[in-house]
Amino acid sequence: MVKSVGISILLLAVLGLLFACSSSGEGGREVSIVQADDGCSPKTVGVKTGEKLNLVVKNESGKDYEIEGIDGTKLEEVVVPEGRTRSVGYTVPGKAGVYKLKCYVPGDVTTIIELQAEGEPQSGVAPAAGDQVSSEPDGETADVTVRVVLNEFNVLPDKTSVRAGSVRFDADNVSTYMVHELAVLRIKDDGSLANLGEIEDLPFGASGALTLEMEPGRYRLACLIAEGEAGSTVDHYKAGMHTEFAVEP
Questions:
Q1: How far is CA 183 from the centre of its chain?
Q2: Distance from C-alpha of 219 to C-alpha of 161, rounded to nearest angstrom
Q3: Pairing of strands 44-48, 39-41
Q4: What is the pTM of this model?
Q5: Integer Cα distance of 210 and 170 in angstroms
Q6: What are the average pLDDT values for consecutive 10-residue runs of the chain, which has 249 residues?
Q7: Fewer CB within a 10 Å sphere, N or C end of the chain?
């Protein structure tokens, strides 16, 4: 009887090991992305239409990185702290084409990764469980509203400081031809930047809103559109599109 129980336990252990080895984590093909001090790699990845991917993002740099979909790619922003690894599920759309991910340090190095999708059109492709999809601002109430005008290459808020609490940012892109965005960056003690939230991909003439709970400290309002993103030929932040902002106690 003891021998029979021992064999059963051994079989269960083997089956469990086989199942673990066949698991794909996020339910898709693993794609490794490495974040280094000088940027991210690879810059291109071949994928299939409708394919489920498990993006394994490893930060080997000394900085906090972020990765997100741009130019219509439905992948919400993910922060990868220095020395850490994050797994993110993503389903490739059912149409052949190029889908872009922006891998970047706010106000610093930026790499645009292209997912080059090939294959027959796939109908009824839905985001996989765990995929992250962008949503519009929900119109939350706030203690104060800051109105921000965006143009080439300026970020012009109607206030340069506010009290701590719930702050709503209303951004207007008054450009006649360029896409802009508004990112709210916290300046950390070591001078690095943390992205608290952003209004992404505002077409010229468009408006957007973002509400954040903000603590006292130094901040920077910026446009993080990179070269190659939204048809831009320049990096907006490096072109000077940012301004200082303060939150008082």
A1: 12
A2: 9
A3: unpaired
A4: 0.81
A5: 7
A6: 43 41 58 98 98 98 96 95 97 97 97 97 64 45 96 97 98 97 97 95 96 98 97 97 98
A7: N
